[in-house]
Amino acid sequence: MNPKLSIGSWAFAFGPYEQQPWSFSRILAYAKESGYDGVEVNGFLPHPVPDVYDTIAKRKELLNEIRSHGLAVSAYAPDFRKAPPAVADKEAYVELLKRYIDFTVDLGTDILRVDTVTSPAPVNEQTYANRFDRLMDTWHASAELAAEAGLRIVWEFEPGFWLNKPSEVVRAVKEVNHPAFQVLFDTSHAYMSGVVGARQAGVQERLHGGIVAYAKQLEGHIGHFHLIDSDGTLHDEETSTHAEFGAGKIDFPSFLRETESIIRPLDWWCVDFCFNAEVEAWGKQAVRFIRNAIKEAVRS
Known about the structure:
By secondary structure, the protein is an alpha/beta fold. The chain has helices spanning 24-34, 56-68, 90-106, 125-148, 166-176, 187-196, 210-217, 252-258, 260-263, 279-299, and strands at 4-8, 38-43, 72-78, 111-114, 152-156, 181-186, 222-227, 234-235, 239-240, 268-271.
């Protein structure tokens, strides 16, 4: 295993950084200095969005800046809040998606990240069924468009959004049933979803075998990988706390060893310190931690 490592730029714009977000240029310099191979681009202002980089010339200038640091883009994570795919008209979602597909291509990456946007609050059976059918229809159409552009869409499941039980995640990705639609497996979200059962409506699902079992249930459907530790808690009672590597409950060498065949084909692994005030310090430590975890996993 010798993946390229990136860091998510959203960590320097959300939560503790919201009032004074880092510029994208500053993040690029930080990523290079810290030993990363690339960045994963947060599609929320003040970081790159299509409305600001609205010409080919501007996009080429942005890509040249990224490359001037010896970096590349691992994925693009745009904003779909205007058209939550389980409740909005498919046409509204698709129109947003088309713009984001063009921008993703211009950033030189082939991965576009999505989520369900909708709250995980419980709904009645009929509403659930209607939402699920709409979501599957919208995401299948989205995968068709992504495939035409040479991209793949990766869905990041997490406690803070609808469809956060392991069985729901497995069912959804199989029902979309398209090679250009896969799952983004985030170790912290997988722990909170598959081990803790956080924010799940109704009966909780907790997997015997933890996040290793979760990854194996999704084998053949994992298209991107986020690494971060979990201390078993939620951030602001909404989504997974993104903890310091080595300070949480995830045994990374063991996880990497047990899932090597699943994650080895993935070119990029992204470090995700979303909502973490210590990202500047801990992000620098993460590269060495992950490389050492890989060495330990391979030795075992």
